Amino acid sequence: MIYTITLNPAIDRLIKVKGTLTKKRTNRAHQVEYDLGGKGLHVSNVLTKFNMENKALGYIGETNRPLMESILAKKNICHHLLVEDGASTRECIVVMDDTNAGSLMITENGFHVSKENHSKLIDFLHQFLTEKDIVVIAGSMPPNYTIAQLLEIINTIKNKKCFIACDLSGEALAAVVDMGINFIKPNQYEVEVLFQNNQTTLIQKIKELAIKIDYVVVSLGKDGSYVAHKDNLYQVTSPTVKERNDTGAGDVFVGSFIAQFVQGKDLKTIMKYATGCSASKVTKHNSTDFDIKEAESYFNRISIKKLGSDEDVVS
Ligand code: TA6
What we know:
Distance between the termini: 32 Å
Number of helices: 10
Bound molecules: 6-O-phosphono-beta-D-tagatofuranose
Low-confidence stretches: none
Mean pLDDT: 94
């Protein structure tokens, strides 16, 4: 079973304005819709689209629970989310305009999670995880959540010997890297923060991370990614596509990577699906849609170069 954990869930409110989004002007919304938010939940959506059995864990606010439940139901997401009484799942506002120059995201902080619900999550992990399971933890932490609580979750999963993938940033990323997990996907900025801007190159930093972490993916947006595994480092380019909304592209990358990895695919195939699906996501207007067939049609426009071995071009 693949479990995803979203500690700080969200509902994305997508607002499309006509023309160019401009400060100091009334930007009129001409289309508003809700979509799933929260990085772990996005990963669950991707896994579900790949027909991979998975369960989304984490928390959900009681006040606007019907809206969140209806979004989850539409996407057939199997979940066990612990309800926080009197709390409301945060909204993340995503604004797009006609310029196709990327989306603007404003996220609320999220609700406080009670100690009782944290303990219930730990109990669930104790009770149900087995060593064959994969656990993906993604997204920001609730405002009152501590690093100690996050580490308790990681420790519980580690004790069960599961494969652990994390898409976290800042202090949370630093803490899980210290513990040693199996997969991380920071962007270039998050890597620099992790190393407190020390003067080594990005490649050197990735190599250092790869000593402790089995799979290190550093996303570079339109420029693709670096992927480090064992002693190998690859540079993966992304196909050029017509961008409509880049929100959620990283989550589609993670979900597609895990979907292929679980099926035992080779690293080249894993990277092609992750990169292709993420590029397909960027062409869609909402936070979650992508097309697997479209992703496959991009494969011959994705290059994977193994670095450090005389420009050894893998594909
Ligand atoms: O990656 C996109 C996304 O999942 C959005 O849908 C939005 O909900 C946001 O990220 C939440 O990010 P955060 O880092 O605050 O958990």
